[in-house]
Automatic annotation (TrEMBL):
SMART domains: PBPb. Residues 1-20 form the signal peptide. It is found in: Cell envelope. The lineage of its organism: Bacteria, Pseudomonadati, Spirochaetota, Spirochaetia, Spirochaetales. Residues 43-266 form the Solute-binding protein family 3/N-terminal domain. The keyword Signal applies. CDD domains: PBP2_AatB_like. Its main location: other. This is Extracellular solute-binding protein, family 3. InterPro entries: SBP_3_CS, Solute-binding_3/MltF_N. Keywords: Signal.
Length: 272
């Protein structure tokens, strides 16, 4: 009887080891299947604000275009998957990512310590700053000149964080109005609804250059920052593959070509 029990026990142990060995590299054993999930599905879903030029926005034909879009298209092509552009409510971007609706946030996504607690970022790929835009004929020439005036910005953006992190400046303002996107805030500035817009430098420069509006950017800034691509915390394999591909694109000149097209010069910091 003991021999029978021992034989059954050994057989069970062997089967268990074989089963465990077969699942060793799978997600159930703690492995990261984020890259294989993308390649097997054949699609890479990018979440973005489709009103954030020049990073990602809709052109006259209602197509989503931009600097980040072109970078992502080339990355997806080299990985061998289809890029799916998914416009999202920027104020709910982290929720969209963590519920699996999108695979990454790639749209001038500022790296902050607070966000890093919940987001896995790539290294930074572009430098940026938070600036203040006013009308050309405005008497405002400094942050101090905005005392008692109304400023607008985009809800859920790093511009909101920049204002919060400058309590003296914020308390000097009469009001801070948060809009759905920066373009709406700039339109309100143009018609005199607000006195200034706190905005990303790359967006401000692009809007002024393309729209021809009589806007100007104050010399004082509310701080410098960097853009990164955001992934779910456990999706390291996918994040690493995207960054590895961008490094190869920087090395062969593709990034420089895309940056010159959208930003006027190769100001990328990928691999630098």
């Amino acid at each position: 009887m003991k021999r029978i029990v021992l034989a059954v026990f050994c057989a069970a142990m062997a089967a268990g080891m074989l089963f465990a060995g077969g699942k060793k590299d799978g997600p159930a054993a703690g492995g990261d299947a984020s890259l294989t999930n993308i390649t097997s599905r054949g699609k890479f879903v990018l979440g973005l604000d489709d009103a954030f030029p020049p990073m990602g926005y809709r052109n006259e034909d209602n197509e989503i275009v931009g600097y980040d879009v072109d970078l992502a298209k080339e990355v997806a092509k080299r990985i061998g998957v289809e890029l799916v552009l998914q416009p999202i409510d920027w104020d709910a971007k982290e929720q969209e990512l963590n519920t699996g609706e999108i695979d990454c946030i790639w749209n001038g996504f500022t790296i902050t310590e607070e966000r890093k607690a919940n987001i896995l970022y790539t290294p930074p790929y572009l430098k940026n700053a938070q600036v203040v835009v006013v009308k050309g004929n405005s008497p405002v020439n400094s942050l101090k000149d905005l005392t008692g005036k109304t400023a607008g910005t985009q809800a859920g953006s790093s511009s909101v964080d920049a204002i919060d992190e400058a309590p003296e400046f914020k308390s000097s303002l009469k009001e801070v109005i948060e809009y759905k996107d920066f373009l709406t805030a700039l339109m309100d500035l143009d018609v005199g609804g607000i006195d200034a817009v706190v905005i990303d430098l790359v967006v401000a420069n692009d809007n002024i250059n393309r729209s021809g509006k009589d806007f100007r950017i104050l010399k004082e800034t509310l701080g410098e920052e960097e853009f990164g691509i955001g992934f779910r915390k456990n999706d390291k394999a996918l994040a690493d593959k995207v960054w590895e591909t961008l490094l190869a694109m920087a090395k062969d000149g593709t990034v420089a070509k895309i940056a010159t097209k959208w930003l006027g010069a190769d100001i990328s910091i990928i691999g630098k």
